[in-house]
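Researcher: We're teaching a course module on how sequence relates to structure. For the next exercise, students receive a sequence and then see the predicted structure as C-alpha cells, so they can try to spot secondary structure elements on their own. Here is the exercise chain.
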Amino acid sequence: MRKKIIILTVIIVVAIFSVMALIAFDVNPFQKKNQETKDNCFTKTIEVVAVEKGDLKNAISVKGTIDSENPIEINMPANAKIKEISVREGSRTRKGDILVVLDKDSLKDEYSKIYEEWVKAESDLGYMKPTYDYVRIIATAKGKVTENNLVKNSNTEDIIEEKEHLLVIENRNEKKALSNNVPNGKISSINYLSAKGREVKSGDLLFIVKVANGDFNTQVEKVIDLHEQLKVLQEIIEDPYIKTESNFIVSKINILEDGYYEKDTAFIKANPTDEILVKLAITKDELRKVSIDQEAKVTLDSGVQLAGSVSHISYSPNESGKFDLTVKLPDLEGSDVNDILPGLKAGVEIVLEEKMDVVKVPVDAIKTDSKGEYVLVYTGSIEDVKNYTVDTIPTEKRHIKKGLVTPLYVEIENGVLAGEKVVVVTVSKNENDFYGNIIGF
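Model: And here is the predicted structure for the students to work with:
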C-alpha cells in the first residue's frame, strides 16, 4: 500500500514539473495547435514587383449630370406649318445655321387672314371719335435742367426711342430723368421753365402731354399691331428659313414635320455652347479639398474628354447629406463635340495633388515596425519566387521616406531606387474558416 502511494506521488510531481516546464519555455501544445489551424485559414501570396518611376495623383472621381447655365427657347414667329426640320437633338449649331423651314402656303394663308383683320380694324377706327386727356408733367424736386429733348406735337414714345430721355433734372443729391414714367402721347405744350440750364423747383409745370383714352386708343394699338404682323409675315414668306442667332447645342425639339403650330410656340430648347455645366455631389471630406477655379477633367459617355473648372460650391448639405458642386466646361465653339444633352451623365475627375516622374511602389509593399515604415527589397536572383515562403525569401529590410500617397501607389523619396525589386505579400482568407480577421505578419 505504501509503495502505491509513493508511485502515485512521483507521477503527480512529474506532471506538475512538466506543466511548469512547458509554461517556462512558452510551449503550449493547445495554443500551437490553434495557431497552426489559424494559419491554415489563410493563404499568403508572394510577389516581386519592380520599383518604377511614373506619375502619381490624388483625385476626386465622381459621376455628374450635364446641365446648362441659361437654357434658351426658340419660338415660332407666326402661325405656320413645318416643312422641314434641319437639326436633331444633340446637334451643335453655329450662328446662321438653319433650324427649320416653314411652309410658304401656310404662311400666305396666315397673311391673308391677318390682312382681312387689319382692313376691318382700320375701317372701324375711321368711325370712332377720339377723346383726350391732358396730362400735366411737373417737377418733383428742385434742380437744374441739364438735358431737354422735348419737341412740340411729337409723340413722347418716339422721342424716348431716339433720345432715351425727355428731360433730365439734376441737383447735388440726385439725377432725375423723365422717360418711361411719362404717358405716351403728343406733347401739346412746353413751358419755358423746362429749357436747358433753367432752375426749377418742386411743383413747377414742365410740359403737357395730350393722351388719347378709351376705346379709340385701344383700337389704334390694334391697328398698329396687325400692321406689324403683316410686315413680319411678308419677311418670313420671302425667307421661310428660321436660323440660329447664336452658337448652341439643341437639347429638345418639340415639333414634327408637317405639323401646324401657333405663333410663340417654343419649338426648340437649346444650351449656349459657352454655358455647359456638369453638376455633381461630393462628401464632406472631399469638400475640404476643393476650391473655386480648381481644374477638373470631364469624360463624356462617348469617351471624349474636356477640361473644365469648379465654378460653384455649396457649403450646405443637400437632402442626401452631400454637397453640391458645379463644373463649368469651356466654350465648345470650334470643337467637334456633339450630343452634350442636359440629363446625360459624365465622369468628373478633380485632381487634388499630382507629381510627375517619381519613384513609386505599391501600397501593399509598405510595412511598419517600431522604427517606422519599411519595404522588403528582394536580393535573390531567381525570377520565379513561387517556391519561396515569407520566411525563406531572400530580402533586405529598408526603412523608407514616403511622399505622395494614393490609393494604389506610394511615392518613395528615400530608401529604394528605380529598378530595384520589392516583395509584396498579400494574405487571402481560405473558405470555410472561422476567423474573421486577417493575421498580420
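Model: If you want an answer key for the exercise: Helices lie at 2-24, 29-39, 104-126, 156-163, 214-238, 284-287. Residues 28 and 114 are 107 Å apart (CA to CA).
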